Amino acid sequence: MKSTDVLVIGSSAAGMVTALTGKKVYPDKTFTVIRKEEKTLVPCGIPYTFASINGTNDNILPSEKMLENSSVNLIIGEAISINREKKTCILKDKEEISYKKLVLATGSSPSVPTWLKGADLENVFSVPKDKDYLDIMKTKLDKCNKIIVVGAGFIGVELSDELKKTGKEIILIEKLPHILGLCFDEEISIKAEEVLQERGVKIITGIGVKELEGDKKVNKVLLDNGKILETDAVVLSIGYHPNTTLAKESELSLSKQGCINVDEYMRTDDPDIFAVGDCAQKHDFITRKPCCTMLASTACAEARTAGMNLFKLCAIKTFSGTISIFSTMIGDIAFGVAGITEMQASEEGFDVITGVFEGMDKHPGALPGAKKQLVKLIVGKESNVILGGEVVGGSSVGELTNIIGVIIQNRMNINSILTSQIGTHPLLTASPAGYPLLKAAENVAYKTMFK
After folding, report:
1. Are residues 103 and 132 in the same domain?
2. Contact criterion met (CB below 8 Å) for 289 and 283
3. Within 13 Å, how many C-alpha atoms sit on residue 350's CB side?
4. pLDDT score recorded for residue 451
5. Closest by alpha carbon to 355, among 250, 444, 252?
6. CATH of the domain at 354
7. Same domain, yes or no, for 148 and 50?
8. pTM (2 d.p.)
């Protein structure tokens, strides 16, 4: 029987970063990673394998080399059971591995509703993190002329935009009033809709899908309002569920959301077993409520926390809550959000005030490549602490959204932002006199502090 000090099950972002971090903090310990896939994909890059890059071969996470360079062992295999009492893991090929610490980084899989009739028809696809599946899916979609995508979260929107680049007719269906409606306030979602429609994607919102029809192969989609749409293929992009079978069979505690319960050190109710990434329960940084945010960035933050606390706990190295930080790009217009939206704040009972400013991301605005940049801040009315922010603009949106995430995590208030020192350059940033983040904060201050 093989033995290792730390056994990590799963080698996507969460598993890989846990092993790499742990090995740096505890160099005298042995680390072993198990994964069942021959190759690991970059999860966020999956939509772009359908047009922007040359298939899944250009979207491989170089985990083998990174693990090897850090002296972390890698086993290609499938873990099928865990014996917590003996501290062993059994693989599908009957191999048994003993451990001192175990990390579950088993990720998530696409949700396909059991009630949806026709979901098992040919040419009905989901979007898993499975290279072989996606390769077959791409080959089949290449032969289709009309494709319906169901679900307008980030994956659904990005995939629709990518498939449209191949010259096909694309219809995106979303049950909510607007696309990206769970992540952005209405005015931002509408901007995203306008950009996507300008790029040729047809959008149907406020209506759900009732049934998929066809004789072996899907050819029609029946909507809740009775309308029937003809199609050559359907892609279901309606969310993901955590992969927690191993945890459940090992009698680890699961949440109502079906995720593995963890503390701020990412420990399960077994002190020698940790869980990170999509399979681990999240709690919103602002509301403190359980949430189901599944992001590679969140997974990596959890993984670093777990890796540092495997053999000794550090009170300042904890994961204190999930800040939802999303960004995407439709054409050359980017959309980002961090924290909670104004709508979410209202639903949760927060008394908030907002500040909005639109400027340019370079100065002067006549410079080549300059884009309008809109920033919206959601601020606690009594504390002036920033609870959330939304950004629309050019490629700089991604990093600006991350900055807002740091602001939220450090509970900065409006005065902290107004007195912040920033560096600017005409080709790289907005003008120091019209920096949208600062001007949006100024907008809030004029409504409260300076009255």
Report:
1. no
2. yes
3. 25
4. 57
5. 444
6. 3.30.390.30
7. no
8. 0.93
**Each residue of 408-420: pLDDT tens digit?**
999 999 999 999 9
Residue-wise pLDDT for 367-380, tens only, equals: 999 999 999 999 99
233-236 and 209-215 strand pairing: unpaired
CATH classification at residue 40: 3.50.50.60
Q: Are residues 301 and 260 in the same domain?
A: yes
**Number of domains into which the chain is organized:** 3
When pLDDT is averaged across residues 314-340 and rounded to a whole number, the result is: 92
Length of the chain, please? Answer: 451
The radius of gyration computed from the CA coordinates of the chain, to the nearest angstrom, equals 23
Within-domain flag for 146: yes
The answer to whether 70 touches 24, Cβ cutoff 8 Å, is yes
Q: Which of 259, 275, 308 is the last residue of a domain?
A: 308
Write the pLDDT tens digit of every residue in 338-395.
999 999 999 999 999 999 999 999 999 999 999 999 999 999 999 999 999 999 999 9
In 3D space, the residue among 3, 8, 10 whose CA is nearest the CA of residue 307 turns out to be 8
Q: What is the pLDDT of residue 176?
A: 97
Q: Which of 206, 238, 270 is the last residue of a domain?
A: 238
What letter represents residue 392's amino acid? V
Q: What are phi and psi of 195, to 5 degrees?
A: -65, -45
Distance, CA of 415 to CA of 408 (rounded, Å): 14
pLDDT confidence of residue 363: 95
pLDDT of res. 449: 63
- Domain limits at 134? 124-238
104 and 251 both lie in a single domain: yes
Any domain includes 134: yes
Reading phi first (left if > 0) and then psi (alpha if -120 to 50, else beta), residue 411 is in: left
